[in-house]
Amino acid sequence: MKKTAEAVSLGHPDKISDYISSYILDRMIEQDSSVKYAVEVMVKDNTVVLGGEIKGNVSLDNLNQYIVNALAEIGYTKEYSTLWGDCAINPQKINVINMIGQQSSEINQGVEQDGWGDQGVFVGYACKGDGNINQELYLARKLNNALYEKALKSKNLGLDIKTQITLNDDKIETAIVAIPMLQQEDLTAFVIDVLGETPKNIIINGTGSYTYHSSIADCGITGRKLACDFYSTACPIGGGSPWTKDGTKADLTLNIYARQLALENLKDNDECFVYLSSCIGRSELPSGLIKTIKNGKETLSDLWGCQKPSQLIKSFSLDKPVYAKLCRQGLHSLNKNLL
To answer: Measuring CA to CA, how many Å separate 338 from each of 21, 30, 146, 311, 317?
Structure first.
C-alpha cells in the first residue's frame, strides 16, 4: 500500500506567516503573561498584513522590528537578500499593514472565569516507530530539516523547501524535493544519505528550475500547512491553526494535550487516537474519546474531563514566550520529554 506525506520548511511563505504571528505573541507575553491574542498574518512580496485581536497591557509600537527579527530567525536576513536579490523576501523593504483590534468583551468574560476562549475539536495521534508518528511523515520531516540546515549554510540553496515521501510497503518509492538554487546542484547523494536508503524515484525541482521563492513567488497565509503541522493523512486534523493564538484559545493547548494523551495511551498498541472538544466559556470538555489499534483491532474508551485552561497552560509553559519555538519544532515533534 502506498502512503505519502509532505513537509515544508520554516522558509515556506505559509510558515513565514505562522512564525511571524508566533514571534509577535512571544513578545506580547514578555510584556503581559496573561495577554489574549489571535492574530492572522498574510505575506505577499514584501508586504505583511496583520489582522486579529489583542487584549492586554502591551505595546505594538515595535511591530515592524518584530517582523524583521522573525524573518532573521528564519534565515531571511540582509545578507540573504544581497545574495538572492528580488528572488526572495527582503526584510529591508518590509511594508506592514496593521489591522489588529481589541478582543471581544463577550469572549473575554468567559475566559476570565477560566473557560476556553473558543469551541472546537482536537485530535492527538501516536504510533509505533520513529518519533511516534507515521513513517512517511517522519522521513519527509527528516529530509526537510536536513535540507533546511544545509541551505542555512549555503551560498547556493534557498530556504523555501518542500519535501514529499511516498512509501510502498514501508520502502521509499519516491522522494520529491523542491529547493531554490542559484546554480544547479546535484543533491541526489545527500538525499540518499539522509534517508538511509535509495528511493526508486528521486525528483529534485520537478519544473527544472526554482529561484523565485518565499512570498515573492507565493502568497503566505497562517494556517495553510495544517496537514504538515499535524499528522498528514494518518489522522484527522483537529482545531484551527495552533500558531496564531494564545493558550486560552485551545487550538494549541488542547492539541498538545491530545498528543500527550495519545503518547501515554499508546503503550503496546500500534496506533492511538485521542479526540477532544471544547466549549467557549466553559472548562468542561463536551466529549473525549481514546481509540487504540492493535493488530487491526480497535478499542474505544470514553474520556471525560474538566480541563481548566489555566492548569494546562501552566503545565505546558504556554504562559511563557515558547510559541515561536513550538512553531519551529511542530506539534508532532512533541514527546513526553518535551511536555
So the answer is: 22, 21, 21, 17, 11
